[in-house]
Design goal:
By secondary structure, this protein is mainly α. It has 4 helices and no strands.
Length: about 120
């Protein structure tokens, strides 16, 4: 197992970062009238996932880190909802790949939370 020296070494952060890039790609095809609505909200939500992983890392206490990871996890649920809504509105033909990526990030964040809580 490789040493973790930075939040960028965390697989959860790496996958969440790649998820943001995919969300930006997908939302670039949304209708122009959604630019300040669902497109912006979806992008902000996606960006908040790796951002909160990073911010929690930098807070310096386990309690704060867990809190920021929980916020990141909440954003995964929000993003799942937005992707489903986007599909139901016809903006996406399928969100299966992004849905799987979101769930993977959620599982990784859950593992980090458990690991930190087990250390007490």
């Amino acid at each position: 197992m490789s040493e973790i020296n930075s939040y960028e070494d965390l697989i959860a952060w790496q996958k969440a970062y790649r998820l943001v890039l995919e969300v930006y790609r997908l939302t670039s095809a949304f209708p122009a009238d959604e630019r300040f609505g669902l497109t912006q909200q979806t992008r902000r939500c996606a960006v908040s996932i790796p951002s909160n992983v990073a911010e929690g890392w930098g807070r310096g206490t386990t309690k704060d880190y867990v809190r920021f990871l929980q916020i990141a996890r909440g954003s995964t649920y929000e993003l799942q909802t937005q992707m489903r809504l986007s599909q139901d509105l016809g903006y996406l033909t399928s969100h299966q790949n992004v849905h799987e990526a979101i769930r993977e990030v959620e599982r990784l964040i859950n593992g980090l939370i458990r690991s930190l809580q087990d250390r007490g």
